[in-house]
Amino acid sequence: MTWRAPEIDRRHEPFVADERTILQGWLDNHRDTLLLKCAGLTAEQLRTASVPPSGLTLLGLVRHMADVERWWFRIRSAGEEIPGLYDDDEDPDADLNAVADADPEETFATYRAEVAAADRAAADLSLEHTFRHSRRDGSTNEISLRWVYVHMIEEYARHNGHADLIRERIDGVTGS
Q1: Element (H, E) at 36
Q2: Is the CB of residue 166 less than 8 Å from the CB of residue 112?
Q3: Of 37, 30, 96, nearest in space to 61 by CA
Q4: Is the model's pTM score more than 0.85?
Q5: How far is CA 118 from CA 19, 43, 72, 174, in A?
Q6: Beta bridge partners of residue 130, listed in sequence order
Q7: How many CB atoms lie within 10 A of CB 151?
Q8: List of residues 6+ apart from 86 with CB closer than 8 A
Q9: What is the residue-level pLDDT of the chain in tens, covering all 176 positions?
Q10: H or E stretch including 142?
């Protein structure tokens, strides 16, 4: 039997709520949207780079977002001393690239675990919580958890656009 990505019921963002609830709602909506783009596909389809010349795959995007969840919420915001999920000195984009032998079931389990861990890590932090972040250019910035939420929503929105194109090329499925 061929593995198929599970179906997903997407949560919708609240229209009226406090700031934290709105940010969490939009983040959850985008998390579910990425999973929705993967729903019903086989392992082979999830590993398919269908928008040449890009090598992006749906499975790679899920792996990438699991790593990004870990990075921004657990490592940076909460200060947990843990490694990245797909660290590879020879390929800094291994999360996106090393999918040929990646197990979809394991990838989705890891993703869901990282989302839950990210939510736990942020739960006791206020939106005003800050940390120092070193940029690639050597500068450092003070960053708030509020910024992390907005950045994560932006990151998901961008990658969900990629996922839309990849999915449409795989089997013609479109829509939100």
Answers
A1: helix 19-38
A2: no
A3: 96
A4: yes
A5: 18, 26, 8, 29
A6: 144
A7: 13
A8: 63, 67, 94, 95, 98
A9: 456 666 777 788 889 999 999 999 999 999 999 999 999 899 999 999 998 899 999 999 999 999 999 999 999 999 999 999 998 888 889 899 989 999 999 999 999 999 999 999 999 999 999 999 888 888 899 999 999 999 999 999 999 999 999 999 999 998 76
A10: strand 140-144
Token representation of residue 143: 């960053």
When computed from its CA atoms, the radius of gyration of the chain, rounded to whole angstroms, is 16
117, 70 in Cβ contact below 8 A? yes
Tokens of 166: 């990849």
Q: Cα separation of 80 and 103, whole Å? A: 26
Residue with tokens 């709105």: 22
Residue with tokens 């700031």: 19
Q: Are 23 and 150 in contact (CB under 8 A)?
A: yes
Q: What is the separation, in whole angstroms, between the first and last Cα of the chain? A: 28
